[in-house]
Amino acid sequence: MSDLDADGNVLDISDLTTEIDTAAGTIRPVASVALAVRRGATLCLVGESGSGKSMLALSVMRVLPAGAHITAGSISLEGTDLTDLSEREMRAIRGRDIAIVPQDPMTAFDPLLTVGSQVAESIRTHLHLKKEQARARMLEALDQVHLPNPRRVASSLPSELSGGMNQRALIAMALATEPRVLLADEPTTALDVTVQAQVLELLAEVQRDRGLAIVLITHDMGVAAAVADEVAVMYAGRIVEHGPMRSIFHEPRHPYTVGLITAARESYLPGTAFRSIPGAPPNLLALPDGCAFASRCSFARAACSDGPPALRRIGDLEAACILEDHERPWLTATRLQDGVSA
Questions:
Q1: How far apart are CA 85 and CA 32, in angstroms?
Q2: How far apart are CA 248 and CA 210, in angstroms?
Q3: What is the predicted pLDDT for the residue at 17?
Q4: Does residue 266 contact residue 259 with C-beta atoms inside 8 Å?
Q5: Residue 255: its pLDDT value, please?
């Protein structure tokens, strides 16, 4: 048994850096990221669009776009470093041991092929089953995600199904091979609130049954609050805060996290002036020398330009911010609200 097995970690990402070569220069959408995902747990990656969440997922799957490549770090799946594997070896893991639910259910499927044929083809590829065996497994998978009349769904084109049904079919395809890790990239985007809740409950149900490790990517802090065991906040390619869900939402240490929370739910953290986050994320081709969030931060000071702040342990959180707790006004208000002495 490996040390990772003993710790219960299925996926361990260490100092991972991914670069993309562009005509204007090289950018780092993933910069020195370190994260671990436990068996049976959900880690939510949160942050604005362009923060690096999806690129991190693509790095783990090693399905990067043209010009992108991993330049440092490791991605360990229960002790096996995926960055050391050949593409042939990686194909045996991708979709089998690590599966992904892509972002847009209406464009993820080939519009010219039936949903069932695409799910069955994935099963045949990864499990090496005969055609009839794969079809039976496909129908079983569609039924397990509570799609009504799986045979009708299987014979339908993606355009003949609703967004919620396509999303469930994508989840069925991802889960049919019984992966150890599921990467769900904005799985509830463009779904109405009722369907969103159903999809999240479905993922939780499968997780309970299988001990599945889930990395759920979202910009919706409400979704993260509902499903996460741990939350990692990304900004400009880096993790700026990471810790248990309750600590992230009740005692966040990074001003960016506070901005995300209060933008999603006004007055969630009393005593802070944040209602929305001013400005926009920085251009990755022209990152500042210091904290990438400083130009948008109400608490920035000269020392914030000295260099990118490293993650440091504060209680059960890690935060990349030089502020001390007495300089974080929202903490006192939150602790008082929760009945904890400031």
A1: 20
A2: 27
A3: 98
A4: no
A5: 94
